[in-house]
Amino acid sequence: MLQKCLFPVAGYGTRFLPATKAMPKEMLPILTKPLIQYGVEEALDAGMKQVAFVTGRGKRAIEDHFDITYELEEQISGTPKEASLEGIHRLIDRCAFSYTRQIQMKGLGHAILTGEILVGNQPFGVILADDLCVGESASVMAQMARVYEQHRCSIVAIEEVPRQTVDQYGVIMGEPIAEDLYRVSDMVEKPSPESAPSNLAIIGRYILTPDIFDILRQTPPGKGGEIQITDALKIQAQQGGVLAYRFHGQRFDCGNVDGFVAATNFFYEAYLRDR
After folding, report:
1. 3-state DSSP assignment of residue 251
2. Which of 223, 243, 1, 253 lies closest to 109, judged by CA?
3. 37 neighbors 86 (Cβ within 8 angstroms)
4. DSSP character at residue 24
5. φ, ψ for residue 167 (rounded to 5)?
6. φ, ψ for residue 253 (rounded to 5)?
7. Residue 82 gets which letter from DSSP?
8. Could you give the count of Cα atoms lying within 13 Å of 60 in the half-sphere of its Cβ?
9. CB proximity list for 153: less than 8 A, separation 6 or greater
10. What is the pLDDT of residue 188?
11. DSSP class of residue 219?
């Protein structure tokens, strides 16, 4: 059912300057693997083999990463280092990659609308690579895909956050309809802790139905002068068309230094256990 996953990767990554001055933030490594590779692996785990990137200036390294590097691979052929490329070769062999460019940074909603030419008229996943997620029984996107198969509507991933931090997220209002599943009635982008409808925050995982594109075309700029995906989803929610899923697993916000270090420590401890 779900074949495509969209990766908005045009952002500048200013919180990691100067490291991201010439390198995409999505290529920052957690141990030996860049953030974007973790995201594509999650998409493939959910059965989404058609991977679409909305890129921007200075993002060519992402496209090069998901390609064969003949000179390097010839140099390490037959050596123990060859095994280090098995993971990326698996993605290259099993996925189809497409790219388009977001000319102006006008928010996540605009980035998703820019990706319409790659997605077409079908439901699709969206992964924000700097939200690095580790699922418990399955990847977060695979968990969401199972929910989609049952309900066939847009789905956002949520987690409980401290109320004093809700002004960093889109926050939902909704009623529970099953364990860890809510029917969304409203969404607020970055509310103050006093006005937030809940502490259930949307994180960087979505499954969207294709009517979201027509809604985004009619969505005026919101907070910060950007086209917010939460504003478009709010319209879908008014028609009962949005569910929020509290995923099973752990999320690291690698868009900031604290989350990036926490993710590095988590994966390093796992590496030591498996060594």
Report:
1. strand
2. 223
3. no
4. -
5. -70, 5
6. -85, 90
7. G
8. 2
9. 209, 236, 240, 241, 242, 243
10. 86
11. P
pTM tops 0.70, yes or no: yes
Among candidate residues 220, 46, 63, the one with its CA nearest the CA of residue 124: 46
CB-count exposure of residue 106 (10 Å: 0-12, 13-18, 19+) = middle
Distance CA 161, CA 258 (A): 16
Distance CA 73, CA 260 (A): 29
26, 10 Cβ separation under 8 angstroms:
no
**Tokens found for residue 126:** 């969206």
Please, are residues 148 and 1 in contact by the beta-carbon 8 Å criterion?
yes
**Is residue 243 a contact partner of residue 154, using CB atoms and an 8 Å limit?**
yes
Q: Which helix (H) or strand (E) holds 164?
A: none
Model confidence over 203-233: pLDDT tens digits? 999 999 999 999 999 998 876 788 989 999 9
Q: How far apart are CA 226 and CA 169, in angstroms?
A: 15
Q: Residue 274 — very low, low, confident or very high, per pLDDT cuts 50/70/90?
A: confident
Which pair of tokens denotes residue 217? Answer: 């075309």
Amino acid present at 264: T
What are the tens digits of pLDDT across the range 36-88?
Answer: 999 999 999 999 999 999 999 889 999 999 999 999 999 999 999 999 999 99
What residues does each domain of the chain span? 4-274
| DSSP bridge partners of 145 | none
Q: What is the CA radius of gyration of the chain?
A: 18
What is the number of other CB atoms lying within 10 angstroms of the CB of residue 267?
18
Take residue 214 and report the two structure tokens written for it. Answer: 């027509």
Say yes or no: domain 4-274 is CATH 3.40.50.970.
no
Eight-class DSSP state of 220: P
Both tokens of 17, joined, read 């300057």
pLDDT for the residue 99: 97
What the block records as the tokens of 90 is 């698996």
Indicate the helix (H) or strand (E) that contains 59.
none
